[in-house]
Amino acid sequence: MGYDIERFVGYVNEGLLCSICRDVLEDPLQAPCEHAFCTACIHGWLIHHSNCPEDRQTLDVSLLRPLYRYMKNDLNRLQLHCKNREYGCEMVCSLESIDRHERECEYSQILCSNAGCTVQIERRNLDGHLAVCEYRSRECPNGCGYTILSAEDTQHNCVAELRTELELLRSEMICRVEEAKHEMESRLDSQRRHMVQKESILQNEIEELKSQMSRMMSDVRSLMAAERQHRQELEQAELEKREL
């Protein structure tokens, strides 16, 4: 929807009106046939139609383009009243700067910032409301350190609040101790499995070394037997040589 034409000061050119809502263009787009629309208006129209609402020429969202620069400049220069005029704001400014003004306007109706409070009040009166709001919070004057709402003053009990906090802290500590205990047990179990696995690997390596040692001893005995046999053969050959 566009800007209500009744808010504007002076004459507004027909070309700056939305062809659908007939208000002054807001976030405008233009069709190839040069008819202009508010973005929200034309998008809503094209959900159910496939043509321009003015001349019925075929139209698709992909064909829409930004407003011509000179038209955009004319639009931005239009003067209009703040939307909070009914609440007392007398500001008149250009369409280009109206959004910035209205975001900061002292006459804007805003929601109280206190949680739980549903009162809407003018921005200029907010500080006064916050000072008396029944949902305002403050620190307990008795020194327990708790933040309490004004509406809870009569129900607030420092001892009860501190006891509740102590129980919560105790429960939290027990939970943390249990978590640390489970984590430590998990780590120990993991290390135990790792040590068992490592021990099994070392045992296998020891068995393999023993097997290799046994084969080496067998080879040594074979070599020693072969050496004795060879020595005996040499001695026999020496005897035969002497006899000859």
TrEMBL record:
It comes from the Eukaryota. The keyword Coiled coil applies. Residues 18-56 form the RING-type domain. One of its GO terms (molecular function) is ligase activity. SMART domains: RING. The keyword Chloroplast does not apply. Residues 101-144 form the TRAF-type domain. Residues 192-243 form a coiled coil. One of its GO terms (biological process) is regulation of canonical NF-kappaB signal transduction. Keywords: Coiled coil, Ligase, Metal-binding, Zinc, Zinc-finger. This is RNF41 ligase. The gene is Rnf41_0.
